[in-house]
C-alpha cells in the first residue's frame, strides 16, 4: 500500500502540476513518490521467491504491463506508439518488473556466465525505454542475491541509483 500511495502522489504531482519543482511542497510529494520503485522491486523478488507458478506470475505481470502502458501514456501525454517521440519513459515500470522476473529466472539457470550476462544485457536493452530503465532488472537481482541482509540490499540499490 505504501508503494501505491507513494506512486499515486508522485503521478498526481507530475500530472496536475507539471512545473512541480517551483513549489517545495510539490517537490516533497515527488520525492516521496521515489520510494515506490524500490518497494516494487522488493515485492517482485518476494513474488518470484514465493510463487507456485512462475508462468502464471509472468503472465499476470505481462498483462498488467500492457494495461499499464496505455494508462501511463495517456496520463503523461506520451504517444501510444513506442519510441515515436522519445527513447526514454515510453512505458510504465510494470514492463521492466516483468523483465526483472525473467532476469531472476535467467540468473539462476545452470548456464555459462557469458550466456547469463548476454541474456541480462538483452533484458536491460528491452527495459531501457521504460520508466526507471534497466534499474529494476539490476536491482531486483541484487535484492534477490542479498535476501536476508537488508543493509546490503539498501546500500546496493542506493549505489545503483546515485
From TrEMBL:
Q: Is Lyase among this UniProt entry's keywords?
A: no
Superkingdom of the source species = Bacteria
Spans through the membrane: 23-45, 57-81, 87-106, 118-138
Q: A Pfam family in this protein?
A: TraX
UniProt keyword list: Membrane, Transmembrane, Transmembrane helix
The answer to whether the entry has keyword Oxidoreductase is: no
Protein name, entry field: Conjugal transfer protein TraX
The organism that produces this protein has a lineage beginning with: Bacteria, Bacillati, Bacillota, Erysipelotrichia, Erysipelotrichales
Amino acid at each position: 500500500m505504501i508503494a501505491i500511495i507513494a506512486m499515486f502522489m508522485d503521478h498526481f504531482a507530475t500530472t496536475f502540476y507539471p512545473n512541480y519543482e517551483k513549489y517545495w511542497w510539490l517537490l516533497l510529494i515527488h520525492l516521496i513518490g521515489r520510494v515506490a520503485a524500490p518497494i516494487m522491486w522488493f515485492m517482485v523478488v518476494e513474488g518470484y521467491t514465493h510463487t507456485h507458478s512462475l508462468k502464471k506470475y509472468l503472465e499476470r505481470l505481462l498483462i498488467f504491463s500492457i494495461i499499464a502502458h496505455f494508462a501511463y501514456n495517456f496520463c503523461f501525454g506520451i504517444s501510444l506508439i513506442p519510441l515515436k517521440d522519445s527513447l526514454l519513459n515510453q512505458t510504465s515500470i510494470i514492463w521492466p518488473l516483468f523483465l526483472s522476473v525473467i532476469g531472476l529466472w535467467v540468473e539462476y539457470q545452470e548456464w555459462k556466465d557469458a550466456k547469463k550476462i548476454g541474456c541480462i544485457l538483452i533484458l536491460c536493452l528491452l527495459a531501457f525505454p521504460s520508466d526507471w530503465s534497466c534499474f529494476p532488472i539490476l536491482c531486483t537481482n541484487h535484492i534477490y542475491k542479498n535476501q536476508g541482509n537488508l543493509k546490503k540490499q539498501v546500500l546496493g540499490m542506493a549505489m545503483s541509483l546515485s
